[in-house]
Amino acid sequence: DQQVKQNSPSLSVQEGRISILNCDYTNSMFDYFLWYKKYPAEGPTFLISISSIKDKNEDGRFTVFLNKSAKHLSLHIVPSQPGDSAVYFCAARISGGGSNYKLTFGKGTLLTVNP
Amino acid sequence: KAGVTQTPRYLIKTRGQQVTLSCSPISGHRSVSWYQQTPGQGLQFLFEYFSETQRNKGNFPGRFSGRQFSNSRSEMNVSTLELGDSALYLCASSSLATQETQYFGPGTRLLVL
User: Fold this and answer.
1) Triad B3, B7, B13: Cα angle to 5°
2) pLDDT at position A55, please?
3) CB of A46 less than 8 A from some CB of B
4) How far apart are CA A12 and CA A85, in angstroms?
5) Most distant CA atoms of chain B, gap in Å
6) Which residues of B touch A43 (CB under 8 A)?
7) What is the spatial distance between Cα B34 and Cα A34, in angstroms, rounded to a whole number?
8) Alpha carbon of residue A42 to chain centroid
9) pLDDT exceeds 70 at position A97
10) Which of these ranges, A31-45, A57-71, B29-43, B92-106, has the smallest mean pLDDT?
């Protein structure tokens, strides 16, 4: 049973436009969410996170939105750059009780930003 | 500050053999987690160590084991390798100072023939 789902395996956008990557989750116990970017032959790189007590978190060109009632989060990249082309993973965890260290990942979305 | 390092980066083994992978966390990080990435299953949690103790475990068979040393370095071992164990094995470290965000190493690519 996949608890974190990224339903779009790939997304293609033009340079300078907005990229929106989506993620849905089923486990209502998840209370902390993270986005990672991964290039081939490298480990995932942490991008941005959000706690369930917030509905938005911004860091430069990256903004994550959380809709708890819909169990949905999205990552917005504005403006998109060719260097953003990578696989993006959504991850979730349950805080406390030693579970902070177990991340449940989606299967990733390949973002391609065309010049 | 140096990132998470993993050795070796690439490994080829045959079925039935065993393998040991090593991970050195970011200096000061005491928690080390291991993940397996395969095309079909994505990134799956294997286990997590803190202060030389396994604190969390994923749904993998007993052939997968690990340990952590007093300097926080960690090793994972896979015995009696199967073809399906071919994967990218990723190590991540974290600390309370970073709000427990996990930072990943480059991974070890294991190919089982």
Assistant:
1) 150
2) 96
3) yes
4) 9
5) 42
6) 4, 6, 90, 92, 104-107
7) 17
8) 17
9) no
10) B92-106
